[in-house]
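Example complex used in Figure S2.
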Amino acid sequence: ATPVGLLTGTGRGAQLGILIKGPQVLEDTRTVDTIVLDKTGTVTTGALSVARLSLLDTAPEGLTDAGLLRLAGSVEAAGEHPIARAIAAAASSGPGTTPVTDFDSAPGGGVRGSVDGRRIVAGRPAWLDENGIDLDDAAYAALRGEQEAGSTAVLVAVDGRAAGIISLQDTVKDGSAAAIARFRSLGLRPVLLTGDNAVVAAHVAEQVGIPAEDVLADVRPQGKVDAVRRFQEQGRTVAMAGDGVNDAAALAQADLGIAMGSGTDVAMEAADLTVMGSDLGQVATAIELSRRTLRTIR
Ligand code: ADP
Ligand code: MG
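Predicted assembly (298 residues):
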């Protein structure tokens, strides 16, 4: 579907940069009682930075930190996720990158490709497993250590062997806590939904005032759809805000799908409403404004 109009009524929607797909969208905002929020890029800036590189004992002989970053960055240069952008940027400004061939990605899982004749797989443990890479206890322990320190940790395999971990740090957007308070005052229950690990998710939730029972972590893209559907089956009317390829199906499943304009085209295509820019407060404004506009129309 393509956007068919700007939020009209007062014309304020256009001024505020809120794009909706049709008049029915306004109707849907009225009954929404739950707002599901993607974490990375929606509640947090998604402007991650590489905080640490660690090599595993199973790494190929002679591999260095810089070599690990160059190989992973070369593959991630073809990726779209905020994680991909961060790793590619760190490689570019450090050891450099070389072109990747046979690139492939699994939304919510990771990436893979060939760099300098070496086979690279990067992502979460399940993605490495799908690619036939064994993770020993030491690899899991190292991964947990990084996560407990609050990092989003990406495993990197080289030529079929677990080689290292790239740890990334994200920050909560300035306006996110205030926006979440506004959702509550609009009568919406905020839920944090993420493919990232539970420790990082809990840390972000605490900063923005979402209680632990409303945090769903380690959720795959299809799991995000199922989570939205479960709420709907409980009789809730669900808005979902997201920015990623991994959010698209859940945005389509939600009663009101909201995309961040700073995010991917795929998310915007799947959503009913897009807010320009990256401020979560815009999402609260969109809901307030459309409710007010509806009152004016009636
Ligand atoms: P979120 O819901 O927070 O936006 P995703 O569902 O997109 O997160 O990703 C979940 C997890 O999958 C990430 O935390 C990471 O471990 C892994 N992942 C996703 N994309 C990539 C990528 N391009 N490179 C490495 N790992 C990735
Ligand atoms: Mg995201």
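The longest strand covers residues 161-169. The pocket of magnesium ion (ligand 2) is lined by residues 38, 40-42, 242-244, 247 (CB under 6 Å).
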